[in-house]
Amino acid sequence: MKRHEQSIEDHVKGNVSFAIDQANEYGGLQGSRDSFHQNTIDSVIEDGYTADEAWNAGLWFSSLFCKETGLE
């Protein structure tokens, strides 16, 4: 069994914080959310998790991002 470098929670919460900080670089909150949603999926897969786990992490990221920023 492969040992993952980060938990899925670490991927999600780390990307949410970074995406909020970088929103101006990505054309605002919407652009940042869209970009980092995919980044979250990619980073979870690269860390050895399954595609289903990565997809769920992307959904969790988007939900948490919207909750923290008020973006709908």
Explained architecture:
- The protein is an all-alpha fold and 72 residues long.
- The protein is 71% helix and 0% strand.
- It has helices at residues 8-21, 29-46, 51-69.
- Helix 1 runs antiparallel to helix 2, helix 1 (8-21) packs across helix 3 (51-69) and helix 2 runs antiparallel to helix 3 (51-69).
The number of helical elements comes to 3
- Look at the structure and give the mean pLDDT: 94
Radius of gyration: 12 Å
Helix content: over 70%
Low-confidence segments? none
Quick take:
With 72 residues, the protein is mostly helical. Helix content is 71%, strand content 0%.
Kindly list the characteristics that best describe this protein:
72 residues; mainly alpha; 3 helices; elongated
Question: Helix and strand layout, with pairings?
Answer:
Layout: H1 8-21, H2 29-46, H3 51-69
Helix pairs in contact: 1-2, 1-3, 2-3
